[in-house]
Amino acid sequence: MSAFVGKYAEELIKNAKYIATPGKGILAADESTGTIGKRLSSISVENIESNRQALRELLFTTPNALSCLSGVILFEETLYQKTSDGKPFVQVLEENNVIPGIKVDKGTVEIAGTNGETTTQGFDSLGARCQQYYKAGARFAKWRAVLKIGPNEPSELSIQQNAQGLARYAIICQENGLVPIVEPEVLTDGPHDIQKCAAVTETVLAAVYKALNEHHVLLEGTLLKPNMVTPGSDSPKVAPEVIAQYTVTALRRTVPPAVPGIVFLSGGQSEEEATLNLDAMNKLEVLKPWTLSFSFGRALQQSTLKTWGGKKENVAKAQEAFLSRCKANSEATLGKYGGGSAGGLASESLFVKGYKY
Amino acid sequence: MSCFTSKYADELAKNAAYIGTPGKGILAADESTGTIGKRLSSINVENIEENRRALRELLFTAPGALQYLSGVILFEETLYQKTAAGKPFVDVLKEGGVLPGIKVDKGTVELNGTNGETFTQGLDGLAQRCQKYYEAGARFAKWRAVLKISANEPTELAIQENANGLAMYAAICQQCGLVPIVEPEILVDGSHDIKKCAEVTERVLAACYKSLNDHHVMLEGTLLKPNMVTPGSESPKVAPEVIAEYTVRALQRTVPPAVPAIVFLSGGQSEEEATLNLNAMNKLQTKKPWSLSFSFGRALQQSTLKAWAGKEENLKKAQDALLVRCKANSEATLGTYKGDAKLGEGAAESLHVSNYKY
Questions:
Q1: From its phi and psi, is residue A292 left (phi > 0), alpha (psi between -120 and 50) or beta?
Q2: What is the CB neighbour count within 10 angstroms for residue B355?
Q3: Confidence band (pLDDT; 50, 70, 90) for A357?
């Protein structure tokens, strides 16, 4: 068979389609313990479980924010956490029509013999883990593959390894009822121009969809989480309209229409940049058979984090900041963002060299 | 680099988009001398140049027909032929708003060690030939790759070789200003069901688009000419709506939106079947970012040929028959065909020939 049609096929298609609802997107709140530690330390908050719990509660209970979201990606610890009132986070999300998702990869490791290129690990017992996560209420998963642009990168080896890895992860998820988000992130690091990023993104996406086909992945039950096509971090910036043009062209050349939605990662973009770029894409008058939305981590949480500063008295204000970004991005998915919900914090670049989650 | 660089980029995109104009499609009149010989002999007409020329003149000057066509694929001989009055066929087509196209492959050759699988030849000197064809007025090209379904076929080897050949051909065409029609035909021969055909079609198309990407082909300046997804020739037939569903789904899973149009081959389908299937696809309410049209040879010419029978006094009858099929297929590209075309003799006749070779 070309596409695997298991017992979860209809559910996968339904959930993937729902996540791709225009006007909604994904909050990526799946920072591993190590990574969330860096965030917390940047606002001088101790990296202990109750603080991690408090942060996520702040986000998930923001009045009216959940209506802008179709999904939230969680880290394993968070999947089993509750509000301070004792309500499981998963229930909070479900009651508000937000699908819980789960990060299932176990980070990257270097590929020997390459110039710092990586592959992603996490296959051991992946099927069994997915079953557990499904029982706990998760209905989609995420796995991040990372590629970089350099004089000789990405190499064919790296492209193949990461594409095959994503495809294998994807089919295992589908066998166990989780919609796989396929994330082949091409890092922004480097002095290259936007054309180079476009070329690499197209090559990588073509390899990914070939691998998905080989592994019998049901495309209607998947989502794509790509980088936007932009100049390298060491290159001059360009307008959102230019980013939109290159990005949508790259996707039109590689992503089959069976994929219901594309949910961009924000990379190192500031909150406002990410929103403006997404908005520009949705304003573009060209045929797009998949919805274009967001799966933002830093670009949804940055100003919220800073406003919170770990202090209970700041929660309401922090939640306002979060709601503001959610609304802005919701409008951006409809091409209706009017701009101007950028406070100073929202314009701050979030670029970190060689970013590791 | 994935990015394509050619001085013809804008022209290619413009021409490919034009060929995909809703309401129009392609007449495949590129039968090689050998193949057209079989057609002519089936109506007792001698296979000489004058008769080949007369047949094509009949087709290209059929009153009212050209408005339903955006392109005609020609064989090399025909590219340089004229009407009896001395007007080059290429000019007749251009004046009728139809882009001339040219078959550039040189037929299939068996792949050693396989069970009758083939690859397509024609790459030697292809660039020079394409340049010549462009000068003669051609603006698109066609190359037919062939795969078959059987117990162990298509093999990975056959898929890769044919995908690679198509991609190399396509890249060369684009460098020379010709829009490449990419044709990976999976033969209908066999006793397999429609699901098997769907599976193979998806696999083959995925390989094609990976190869096209590897070879830096600009998809906006290409067209796809696939088989429809149907049961095998020895299997029970299914309704047009079923063919439409399986076909469009296979395309949704494999053909990137940058491709402006998909122009189906008719394989061994009768004229009416091919039209009804195309119509059903265009009625389907689902995501179709490329237009769905026709590139029919037999399925446009069969009743015309029979009506003509090589006799000048039958000219009008024959041209009327062609017009009927052109109009019907034009409506089918819009999903408005009511199935009421006056069926010429042979319009409902299957045109399947086992293991068909052009």
A1: beta
A2: 9
A3: very low
